[in-house]
Amino acid sequence: MIGRLNHVAIAVRNLAGASALYRDTLGAKVSAPLAQPEHGVTVVFIELANTKIELIEPLGANSPIAGFLEKNPDGGMHHICYEVDDILSARDALKAKGARVLGDGEPRNGAHGKPVLFLHPKDFNGTLVELEQV
Ligand code: CO
């Protein structure tokens, strides 16, 4: 069902510092920060040869990653995103196998403007999983 790894998202408190780490220490190609108020985060995209890393920093008062950073003050891996061909059929197949879909279960447009869903981390080895239809 799942296809390629689309990205790994890392929550950070200090986007400028994290960007500098990836650019200067790791030698990666790092984008300019992109505010995404509708998602409550500012994102920096790091393009690797085979996937992407997204550094996400809280934006606004009700950021969905604020609680994660309270529990993980140094930052940490927030979610991984797998590509699927058909998000609705993937959702229905996963629900039939007992996986929990977060929110109302309906796909919404994610950081790349494509439909996404999130799966409960307790059902996936403690890892928040994002599915993105590509
Ligand atoms: Co994501």
Strand coverage percent: 35-45%
Can you count the beta strands? Answer: 9
Q: How are helices and strands ordered from N to C?
A: EHEEEEHEHEEE
Q: Judging by the overall fold, what is the CATH architecture?
A: Roll
- Major sheet description: 9 strands, mixed
- Average pLDDT confidence is 96
Q: End-to-end distance, in Å?
A: 13 Å
3D structure, described in words:
The two termini are 13 Å apart. It contains 3 helices and 9 strands; from the N terminus they run E-H-E-E-E-E-H-E-H-E-E-E. A hairpin with a 4-residue loop joins strand 3 (34-36) and strand 4 (41-47). It has 134 residues and is of the alpha+beta class. Bound molecules: cobalt (II) ion (CO). Cobalt (II) ion binds at residues 7, 9, 54, 79, 81, 111, 130.
Blueprint of the fold:
Blueprint: E1 5-11, H1 15-25, E2 29-30, E3 34-36, E4 41-47, E5 52-58, H2 66-71, E6 76-84, H3 87-96, E7 108-109, E8 115-119, E9 129-133
Parallel strand pairs: 1-5, 6-9
Antiparallel strand pairs: 1-6, 2-4, 3-4, 4-5, 7-8, 8-9
The structure holds cobalt (II) ion.
Can you give me a brief rundown of this structure?
This protein is an alpha+beta fold and 134 residues long.
For the structure shown, list the relevant keywords.
binds cobalt (II) ion; 9-stranded mixed sheet; 134 residues; 2,3-Dihydroxybiphenyl 1,2-Dioxygenase, domain 1; alpha+beta
